[in-house]
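>> received
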Amino acid sequence: MQAGPREITTPFRPIPLDVPEGMKPNEFFNSTENLNDLVHNNGLLSNPENLLLYRKALGHSNEFDTSIIYNTSQTILNPLGRPVRRTQVPDNVRHVWNRMNQIIIAYMLELYPDPNDALVLAGEASLDATWPLTSPGVPSIRMLHNHFIIFPMQQLREAKLADLDNPNLTDGGQHSLFQAYMRDVYREFFDKALDLEILKPIHSHESQLTLTGYPQGLPCWEIQGGIEALKNIRFWKEYDLILMGFIDFYRTFFSQVSSRNAPILPDAYFPAQVENVLLFNNAFLKTAKKVRDQCIKDPAYANAIRWQPAFKQLIYRNDQGKLIVTISQNSIGNAITELLGVVVNRTPDAAAYEYSEPVLIERLRTVRQRLIEADLGDGIATEYWPAD
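>> returned
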């Protein structure tokens, strides 16, 4: 079977929401009113930490698909002031969130213990606050949220090959700015900045899925100990270290793009490594100059720059059944699934969605019950399911 990214179609039930006249959809979706609808029509569980577990109404997969959002719609009315990455979340909230992640991922692996049967992934993407609300393709809910998804491998095997030039597949690999020009220094910085015990760096051939050939060119780490390691708080601290290292690299690079010979950022997580590895590396600074010169000459190119860290961080199971962590810079239009070479076309088709809905909801209620029993929240009743 030919290796390459796969393109699938996933039906959904059209959402009966009326966008007020004069508002763009992605402006409305950031509103408190839309989040109220999310709770009342698709909410599964909430807790005092403002973490909301909900069914994805526009899901990637009807096999299993759910999200947790840090729902600050009632407490931070300014969409541009909401947390967009884990490092901005209070410690007590992140602690609860980590436990919720561990329980949901364990349930998915229990549901599909064989990697030949299902692609299992869980991850989060920043909704970068520098994106203009009116830009096409900007994520619709400007709050930190993560995804838990299962794709049947048979569906992926039978899917058509995706176009390699699909813009949604250019987030990493040879098209990525980091990978194309600064691959060595990018990996060197991670190696020297991060103190890791559970996460072990691995080579591309170990991290890639045989079917899709993805991830491409991204740094990856094996979770030593598998699902049991996710019960260890040390793992989640290392998961945060990966993000902190990425943020330092991203912010340092674009500070050099913005201002030649800019000083080390005062709030860098790893200032010594920034100074020693990044700011004395010719390839790093040469690439910053290349981007800076292009920004000065090309207003459209400059407008597309995301000056603050935008990322996707992912836990997934590889072909050998090992759990892998990877991270990539984000870009408008990309979905988290595309880091693994899965392009999803979501199409409105109520009848097709309702065919899969009973099993999907049964699974969502099962994992919700496990969260309730672990004192991680209370159930929410909707017209589709009761609260318990």
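>> The two ends are 45 Å apart (CA to CA).
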